[in-house]
């Protein structure tokens, strides 16, 4: 099994002067689900190298067993620090693609042509595509083979409007994930705020929030079994 994980390179939270990036749990939980299943993991980001970590996801109250495992795992830290440039990556040889969230993807990966190219290639080849929390932002411009938005007519989830409101960033983000998925024709569903909620529609897997990270990765593995 070869799995491509794509992370954000964006570190500015709009015009607030605060930092953002990827959310640690949303990387660490899937990373270890895949690794423990024996998968070979390739990491990529638009700029390559070390992707920016959202400092809020590094706070004491955001820690999980997976984030603590990552912090004690020098090999995984070295792996993360050397992501490949997205422009240099193709779909060839990979079995699935997975996007951890954090607010960063709303700014870069949602608009990234290389990300769009990869997602459309995986979808066209009927290989699993997964995204959790804010990462379904990557489906903003992706198209299916029929020319319609990739999520059109499909069951999808992602960070809810009420969760965004709870973290006080509704007016800061460039768009709301829930609204975008609906605007693209997605059959948007959600569970309780902050509880794990994962949907699988064909080979498309989406998770609602950080708590959904491990289950979303497990859903990808189920598609590869």
Q: Indicate the overall shape.
A: globular
Instruction: Return residue spans where pLDDT drops below 50 for at least 5 consecutive residues.
Output: none
Strand content: 5-15%
- Counted beta strands: 9
**Helical/strand content category:** alpha/beta
Q: Return the string of H and E elements.
A: EHEHHEEHEEHHEEEH
Order of strands across the biggest sheet? 3-2-1-4-5-9-8
The radius of gyration is 16 Å
Keywords:
7-stranded mixed beta sheet, 15% strand, two-stranded parallel sheet, alpha/beta, 225 residues
Q: How would you describe what is shown here?
A:
The protein is of the alpha/beta class and 225 residues long. It is built from 7 helices and 9 strands. The protein has helices spanning 24-36, 65-71, 74-80, 113-124, 161-166, 177-183, 213-224; strands at 2-6, 40-45, 84-85, 96-99, 129-132, 155-156, 187-188, 198-201, 204-207. The strands form 2 sheets. The chain has a 7-stranded mixed sheet, sandwiched between helices. Helix 1 links the parallel strand 1 and strand 2. Helix 1 (24-36) packs across helix 2 (65-71) and helix 1 packs parallel to helix 7 (213-224).
């Amino acid at each position: 099994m070869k799995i491509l994980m794509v992370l954000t390179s964006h570190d500015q939270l709009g015009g607030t002067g605060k930092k953002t990036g990827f959310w640690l749990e949303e990387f660490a939980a899937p990373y270890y689900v895949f690794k423990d299943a024996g998968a070979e993991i390739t990491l990529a980001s638009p700029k390559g190298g070390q992707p920016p970590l959202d400092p809020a996801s590094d706070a004491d109250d955001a820690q999980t067993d997976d984030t603590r495992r990552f912090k004690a795992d020098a090999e995984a830290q070295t792996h993360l620090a050397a992501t490949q440039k997205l422009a240099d990556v193709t779909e060839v040889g990979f079995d699935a693609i997975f996007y951890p969230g954090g607010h960063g993807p709303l700014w870069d990966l949602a608009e990234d042509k290389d990300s769009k190219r990869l997602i459309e290639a995986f979808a066209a080849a009927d290989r699993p595509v997964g995204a959790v929390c804010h990462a379904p932002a990557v489906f903003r411009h992706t198209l299916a083979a029929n020319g319609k938005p990739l999520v059109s007519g499909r069951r999808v989830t992602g960070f809810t409007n009420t969760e965004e409101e709870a973290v006080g960033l509704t007016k800061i983000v460039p768009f709301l994930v829930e609204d975008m998925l609906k605007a693209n024709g997605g059959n948007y569903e959600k569970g309780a705020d902050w509880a794990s909620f994962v949907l699988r529609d064909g080979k498309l897997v989406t998770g609602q929030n950080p708590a959904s990270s491990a289950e979303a990765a497990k859903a990808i593995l189920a598609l590869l079994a």
